[in-house]
Design a protein that fits this description.
Blueprint: H1 8-15, H2 20-36, H3 45-50, H4 57-67, E1 69-71, E2 74-76, H5 78-99, E3 109-110, E4 118-119, H6 144-156, H7 163-176, H8 180-190, H9 201-223, H10 226-232
Antiparallel strand pairs: 1-2, 3-4
Helix pairs in contact: 2-4, 6-8, 7-8
Length: about 230
């Protein structure tokens, strides 16, 4: 494929949390996927070299884990796979119509969106797969309420939910000293497709400072002194 539809609104929604370097890497991967009409191979060094991303191999791996799904044969991207399948289906219909001499006769049913997409009685209509995006149960330690909010946010962002995604978020949550539930709740609240410890570093610092102040006040109350006298008045 040398052409594909680019939805600006969907792209901004999916990549607003990425840095410029991360967004550029994701964009190059998407273009490579469409151009080659193939999944990203498990052995990524060839792709990294071809896309001139040798100095960004770590970011490359992060983007793969966030936006692609790992399978036995490689890294897949659901939307790209769907668009490539539609492209080949349309090309096949156009080829068939061309052999028939161009536009179909009036007795045939013609697609309103594209007159060249002719449907016959023995041809299955093009449908959209409405299977749920998520088939993974809530991870251990995550409440149903938080999990449902996270799933709803991922569906809205048209983002996949896989073990790799959850594991990636959990690793970053551990770096930040957060539980997985806290990280998923933050993603749902902020509309994030991913989670990084650096994003909540300032928030964690404030929480630690407040905890220190509260601990000091508690020790003062237990130990007595002026604080107790003030509270008793």
């Amino acid at each position: 494929m040398h052409y594909y539809k680019f939805n600006i609104s969907d792209w901004h929604l999916a990549t607003s949390h990425l840095s410029l370097e991360e967004e550029a890497i994701y964009f190059k991967l998407i273009n490579f996927y469409y151009d080659s009409e193939q999944y990203i191979p498990l052995e990524t060094q060839t792709v990294i070299r071809r896309l001139r991303l040798t100095n960004y191999s770590e970011l490359f791996e992060q983007i793969l884990h966030e936006f692609f799904t790992k399978s036995d044969d490689g890294w897949h991207h659901k939307r790209c796979d769907d668009e490539i399948a539609k492209y080949h289906a349309k090309a096949k219909v156009n080829k068939t119509v061309g052999k028939l001499g161009g536009r179909p006769k009036k007795t045939q049913t013609v697609s309103k969106n594209n007159p060249q997409e002719t449907l016959t009685n023995n041809q299955e209509p093009l449908t959209i797969n409405h299977k749920p995006i998520n088939t993974i149960q809530a991870p251990e330690g995550v409440s149903v309420e938080v999990w449902n909010d996270f799933v709803a946010q991922r569906k809205k962002a048209r983002a996949v939910i896989s073990d790799n995604v959850i594991n990636s978020i959990n690793k970053e949550a551990e770096k930040a000293g957060w539980s997985l539930e806290q990280a998923l709740a933050e993603c749902a609240a902020r509309g994030w497709r991913g989670f990084k410890a650096d994003w909540v570093k300032d928030k964690q610092t404030v929480a630690n400072r407040n905890s220190t102040v509260l601990s000091g006040l508690t020790r003062g109350l237990i130990g007595g002194g002026n604080n107790v006298g003030l509270l008793g008045k």
